[in-house]
Each structure stands twice: as structure tokens, then as C-alpha cells.
Amino acid sequence: MKVLVIGAGGVGGYFGGRLAAAGTEVVFAARGRHAEAMASEGLRIKSAVGNLHVEKPALLSDPGSAGLFDIVLVCTKLWDLETAIEHIKPVVAQDTAVIPLQNGVDSEDRACKILAPSNVAGGIAYIAAQIDEPGVIKHTGTMAALAVGELDGSKSWRLEMFQAASEAAGFDCRLSDDIRRDSWMKFVMLTSFSGVTSLYRQPIGPILEDREGRRLLEEMLRESVAVGLASGIALREDAADTLLGRVEGLPYDMKSSMLVDLERGNRLELDWLSGTVSRLGKEHGVPTPGHDRIAAELQSFRMGT
Predict the structure, then answer these.
(1) Which residues of 10-41 are buried (b: 16+ CB within 10 A; e: fewer)?
(2) Which residues contact 254 (CB under 8 A, 6 or more apart)?
(3) How many CB atoms neighbour CB 246 within 10 A?
(4) How confident is the model at residue 103 (pLDDT cuts 50, 70, 90)?
(5) Could you tell me whether strands 2-6 and 52-54 are parallel, antiparallel, or unpaired per DSSP bridges?
(6) Cβ neighbours of residue 107 under 8 Å, at least 6 residues apart?
(7) CA 276, 223, 153: angle at the middle one, nearest 5?
(8) I need a surface site. Which of 122, 130, 166, 211 has the fewest CB within 10 A?
(9) Is 187 in contact with 23 (CB distance < 8 Å)?
(10) Burial status of residue 48 (CB atoms within 10 A of its CB: 0-12, 13-18, 19 or more)
(11) What CA–CA distance (Å, rounded) separates 142 from 304?
(12) Which domains does the chain have, with CATH numbers?
């Protein structure tokens, strides 16, 4: 199996590195100082579940001469999705599965506007990881898993093949029969977690201990579930309570990737997180005051500093 990883940051670097170390043919599309470090010193992963060094990772230079791939993992930031997919169209065969592993809930629909819908599958990454320094991925905690699924809920040999490679690489990869529902479950939790941690500039532990912080988190979870239900997603009515329990189980010092970007002065995925909840809430007539507050108060930081 041949896998292309577009974006070798926390998500792409970690899962792509594990796959490559286990013998899967993996090619990375990276850029800047991170790509330079990978070319000269390899890709390193620092993790409580085991450190790793891929000494000579394959790097994509020219999509036109790279051949075709079985799986393409799109791990860029959300604003780069269309550009990334346009760039790799030459490597997509009739049976290639292009799987966005991104934070929002509309990546698959956006990808389907560029590629044949049959080439697009859904994916979810459950991990806290980031570039610690060029060429080095730091994995926080021990959670590292994927869920993938065909958009029509069917089973497919291509995703079963990818699941087998993932298991051989030492991380769990679950096949989902409703990847849109599962994506929304992650989105509800992530957009609320990202919003409160970025607003308060604190990891989740102190926020849960603060009465107002916890209240805002619970409000945002319920708003997101209501918007998902109004959008036709088959969420359970008690999904907010379930996800609150998951947030409570996160490490005390865990930060969202959006908070890390905020601290570093990077561009934020705000428009695709709380911004999306606010937008869909207006479309469906669902009040979203918590997410509206996050979108408004972080607006001036959305393009970085």
C-alpha cells in the first residue's frame, strides 16, 4: 500500500511516521524548515507510547512524477484544504481514497467539489500532537487513534487495507459506518474545548475548576449538539453530557491546538470551529450565544499576529 501524507505536522507527522516505521510506503508533503529538517535529520516522534526516528522519510517533490497512491491523508490546516487537494490531483487514481483528517465538519464536502465523490472518504484523528521543533513531533498523553469511513456508510477494501496497516503500525483505526455522525461528535467536543481554552488562555484543568469556565463549556457543548441535530446529524439527545464526561477525562494540562496557535501568534481555525457553529446556528434558527462570544472575542486574532 502506498500512502501520501499532506502536511507533516502533529497529525500527519505522527500517524505517517508510525506507518512508515512499520514498513508502509509513505511519502510526506511538507514545507519550510520542518521539511528541511526532515530531509537532513529525519522525522522524530517524542511520545509516552514510544519514541520513534524515521531516518530517511520520503518527501514529495513533484506530484506529477510521484505516481499514484492508494491512500491520501490530508492533514493541513483547514484553510489550506482546497489548495492541497488541487496540488495532489495528479496522484489520485480511480480507487484512491482521499481522507481529510481535519478539525471541521465540512472538509469532505469541500473535497467533493474538487475530486470525484467516490475518491473522498471521511476521517477523524484522536490525538494531541504538534511540531515541537523542525523535524520533531511531540505527542501529548497516550491517546492516538483514527476512525475512517466511506461517506455512504459502506464497507470498502481500501479502508480495510488501511486499517490493517494502521494496526500493524501500533495505533487503533476504527472503521465507522456513519463517519459524519462520528465527525460531529468530535467536532462538538473539539470546538467547545478549543473555544474555552483559547478564550481563557488556559489548559482545560483550571477551566473545569472555575465555575464560569465550566458553565461556558457546558453551554457550548449543548449549542453544538443542537446545531448538529438541526443539520440532520443523528446525534443522541444526551450527546452533550457524554462529551462533557470525555472533556473531564482529559489531562489537566491539556491545551487545544487552537490555543497553541494563539500563543504562537499563528493563524487560527476559528472560522471552521466556533465560527461554523455560529453560522449554522443562524441558518437553522438555533441560538449559539457561547460560540458567538468565542467567535467575536477571538476575531482579531484569527489571522495571527
Answers:
(1) bbbbbbbbbbbbbebebbbbbeeebbebbeee
(2) 128, 140, 141, 203, 204, 205
(3) 12
(4) confident
(5) unpaired
(6) 74, 78, 81, 100
(7) 65
(8) 211
(9) no
(10) exposed
(11) 30
(12) 2-177 (3.40.50.720), 181-301 (1.10.1040.10)
> Tens of pLDDT along 233-281?
989 888 999 999 999 988 888 888 899 899 999 999 999 899 999 999 9
Q: Are 42 and 20 in contact (CB under 8 A)?
A: no
Amino acid at 47: S
What DSSP string runs through the chain?
-EEEEE--SHHHHHHHHHHHHTT-EEEEE--HHHHHHHHHH-EEEE-TT--EEESS-EE-S-GGGS--EEEEEE-S-GGGHHHHHHHHGGGEEEEEEEEE--SSS-HHHHHHTTS-GGGBEEEEEEEEEEEEETTEEEEEEEEEEEEEEETTS---HHHHHHHHHHHHTTSEEEEPS-HHHHHHHHHHHHHHHHHHHHHHTS-HHHHHHSHHHHHHHHHHHHHHHHHHHHTT----TTHHHHHHHHHHTS-TT---HHHHHHHHT----GGGTHHHHHHHHHHHT---HHHHHHHHHTGGGTT--
Q: What is the pLDDT of residues 264-274, one digit of tens each?
A: 999 999 998 99
Chain centroid to Cα 109, Å, comes to 15
73: nearest Cα among 190, 192, 195, 169: 169
Report yes or no on whether pTM surpasses 0.90: no
